[in-house]
Amino acid sequence: MPVCRACLNKPEPLAAEYFCVQCRAPFLSRFPLDEQGRCGLCRRGVRGFDAAYSFGFYEAELRQLIHLFKYGRVRTLAAPLGKLLARALPREQAFDIIIPMPLHWRKRWQRGFNQSELLAREIGRRTNTPVENALRRVRNTAAQAGLTSAKRRLNVSGAFRAKKRAAIDGRRVLLIDDVMTTGATAASCARALQRAGARQVTLLTLARADRRAISDPVLSDAPLVISDSPHDPNFSGRSEDA
Q1: Rounded CA gap, 178 and 113, in Å?
Q2: How far apart are CA 51 and CA 215, in angstroms?
Q3: Highest CATH level, class, for 5-219
Q4: Residue 163: helix, strand or coil by DSSP?
Q5: How many Å from the N-terminal Cα to the C-terminal Cα in the chain?
Q6: What are the angstrom distances between the C-alpha of 181 and each of 8, 72, 99, 199, 241?
Q7: CA-CA distance, 242 to 239, in Å (whole number)?
Q8: Spatial distance between the Cα atoms of 197 and 214, rounded to a whole number of angstroms
């Protein structure tokens, strides 16, 4: 792969003084968290998933490696990036099935692979957990970049369906993606999994956008309308993720 060992070792684990205990969203102060340590979105049940973990912030070397992997099509980066992803997952956690974030068939055809599936197989190999493509993306949604949080949720509403309900029903699911921005796509996926009977849905991503300094209505306690399947994220540039 066109990356030296020194650069592969540069990405730093996510660090912040305050985190939501459920979605692990980082904050600059404890003010947005309630007595139980939950953020406004988790208090209102908007997140969809039960827990979320990320290795680091979507910036610097980690962002460059993800772009090289996903857009540069350097598939051999799946192993070293999978190693970073495994570091973000608490050792005491156990899952029955790992499900990668699905791509629409057109997107997969254009790229030639699903980066989330390659990462999922790395985690499956390390944890001896089966990997299933049990979700499908039924709509080729518009790019999330540049959309407000509310429009991101609307954009991915109803975009996912379970295609292997027997593999999901009653199971503890680990949903894997490369990047989490606002969480809209991941939440939409989580709700599709819950409708299929998933007992628990945990999100695991390589990186998450650092939104601590962003003023966004999605982070407030204003009333929020939850559609049939809600919200996700995406970073500026070419990221189309969770």
Answers
A1: 13
A2: 23
A3: alpha beta
A4: coil
A5: 26
A6: 22, 21, 19, 25, 7
A7: 9
A8: 35
Return the C-alpha torsion angle 74, 144, 231, 62, nearest 10: 40
3-state helix/strand/coil string of 4-56 = CHHHHCCCCCCCCCEECCCCCCEECCCCCCCCCCCCHHHHCCCCCCCEEEEEE
Please report the sign of the dihedral spanned by the C-alpha atoms of residue 185, residue 55, residue 69, residue 168.
negative
Location of structure tokens 């790395």: 122
pLDDT tens string 111-170: 889 999 999 999 999 999 999 999 988 765 555 445 445 455 544 555 688 888 888 999
Phi, psi of 21 (to 5 degrees): -70, -20
Q: Provide the token pair at 145.
A: 């970049």
- Do the beta carbons of residue 123 and residue 81 sit within 8 Å? no
Token reading at 150: 């509310």
Q: Write down the residue that tokens 């993606």 correspond to.
A: 177
Supply the Cα-derived Rg of the chain in whole angstroms.
17
Largest CA distance in the chain: 48
- Quote the percentage of the chain above a pLDDT of 90: 43
Cα separation of 186 and 179, whole Å?
Answer: 10
- Residues forming beta bridges with residue 202, ordered by sequence position: 51, 174
> Tokens 């990462």 label which residue?
119
CA distance 175 to 240: 16
C-alpha span between 205 and 119 (Å, rounded)? 9
Taking CA atoms, 61 is separated from 12, 78, 214, in Å, by 9, 15, 22
